[in-house]
Amino acid sequence: MNSLAGYAFARMQWPGRDGLLLAVIALMIIPLEAIAVPLFYQVTMFGWRDTYLVQIVPFIANAFSIYLFYTFFLGLPRELEEAARIDGAGAWRIFFVIIMPNAKAVFATVAILTFLTQWGAFLWPLMVTYSEAVRPLPLGISSFYTLPPLQWGDIFAFGVMMVTPVLLIFLVFQRWFVKGLETTGVKG
Amino acid sequence: MAKVEFNNVTKRFDTETVALRQFTLTIGDGEFMVLVGPSGCGKSTALRLLAGLEDITEGEILIDDQVVNQISPQQRNIAMVFQNYALYPHMSVHANLAFPLKMRHTPASAIAKKVEQIAKLLDLSRLLARKPKQLSGGQRQRVAMGRALVRNPSVFLLDEPLSNLDAKLRAQIRADIALLQKSLNKTTLYVTHDQVEAMTLGDSVAVMNHGELQQVGTPEMLYKEPQNIFVARFIGNPGMNIISSTVTRDNKSNIVVRIKQQKITLPKISQGGLQKLNQSAAFIGIRPEAFNVAQTGHHVALTVKIQSVEYLGHESLVYFQLADAVKHDTNNHLIARFTGQFDSSHAKETFFVDPSEIYLFDNAGLAIR
């Protein structure tokens, strides 16, 4: 979804494009804390509280991810799409067969950044989830902070459990991640 | 095989930017037409309009007498080679060549056969498994040509395909393209800013400037009979020397050209030409290769000051100015070309020119004959 939006901003001509792009860029500086309360009311209206859905759907479209894709697509030679058009490919096929395979690095970057953000999410799950079944690990680890004496051994063991998947994922995708940051011109 | 016509085509990008103005050009069936001009003259825009990559503001483009203004690029049956080749980086050479056929739902067996045939034609058979980044510039260029040829298009478009290659490879591939076009006999529109490419490749050459067509003709015609100063300067390497002068007629009705203190009498010109010459100010043009150091026949003499000499082995380029020219004068930067080594020991020289090799242009820059 973010890649399609980034592509539409970078390559297509449509009324209101520049204004909307500015809005997306402006959205990047708005923190979750600023929109948490209205968002809470909205998901309550949908009856999504205490589900996985409430932790996934509001974060699918992400201004920063759109911006990453947008900057990458801007740098991609336009001739690739034009050559594909002349060769007989339609808009969707150009996107899926020509553009997407060349944007692997950005997809990896977006995947890692989104994963990191969601893996460490605390405030939003605290607001909208109650049952252990759907709560993420940061809320779990906070339950160890009870009255003294604190069980530091358990806390650190839990911490290692939390960090290990992140490290593994980063190691696997590191090559793509670095390439993605290079190609989008975004510095971490 | 197809005939291509541009009929009064205008392309505006916004209210102020006119990339192409009332452009009319016909490319015959199987003809190799070269569009040449400086950067920003509208030649690539003309090509992109024909490819369908840009919309036409006014006028119409016809392929085989059918107006294609509203027809999408994929339905025009044209193929294009881009300046940066635009090979799909994630696909192998084989996949790149097969892509246009796949898009047209060609059966796999026919694709394999056709790709093999094209690879053989362009000497790419060994490279089919490689990715574009594993190829040299010349090999990439051949793959781009192959991808354009593979589906047998009726019109073949090339947008400065040699500009990313080094000089030696450029000359070689230029010869290959000429041979290929002759053997396939495809209608071809080739865009370049390099007049050497234009002169060596094209059956016909169309010279453009500021979005307007200046002249269309065979390379020989453009060289020998330029219609205006722009074409005279652009065609030829180096281009024609243009010298501002005043023109009068003597009592025998001969044309007398005065350049500063020097006087040249030219042979009689046509009555039509004479009528155009009712103004006193005009320009004369002399090709660098028209200068001689020895006088023969009725050659006219020009006294010049030599500024510098470039020795190129088989020839020398002599940079000079007219003896009475002042600094910052437009007549100050003239070039002569001589075979072999030029003896530059004399600072002041007399160059001789056959009067029949002197071109006359009116105040507006149009040729007078």
Quick rundown:
The complex is a heterodimer of chains A (188) and B (369). Helix content of chain A is 72%, strand content 0%.
Structure description:
The complex is a heterodimer of chains A (188) and B (369). Chain A has helices spanning 2-11, 17-27, 32-46, 53-56, 63-75, 78-87, 91-102, 104-119, 123-128, 137-142, 152-184. With 188 residues, chain A is mostly helical. Chain A has one domain: MetI-like fold (Orthogonal Bundle). In chain A, α1 crosses α5 and α6 packs across α7 (91-102). Chain B has 369 residues and is an alpha+beta fold. Chain B has 2 domains: 4-228, P-loop containing nucleotide triphosphate hydrolases (Rossmann fold, 3-Layer(aba) Sandwich); 241-368, OB fold (Dihydrolipoamide Acetyltransferase, E2P), CATH 2.40.50.140. Chain B has helices at residues 43-51, 93-103, 108-121, 137-149, 167-184, 195-201, 219-224, 229-234, 271-276, and strands at 4-12, 18-27, 32-36, 58-63, 66-67, 78-81, 155-159, 187-192, 204-209, 212-217, 241-249, 255-259, 262-266, 281-286, 291-292, 300-311, 315-322, 334-339, 348-353, 358-361, 367-368. The longest helix of chain B is centred in the middle third of the chain and has 18 residues, at 167-184. The mean pLDDT of chain B is 83. At the A-B interface, α6 and α7 of A face β6 and α2 of B.
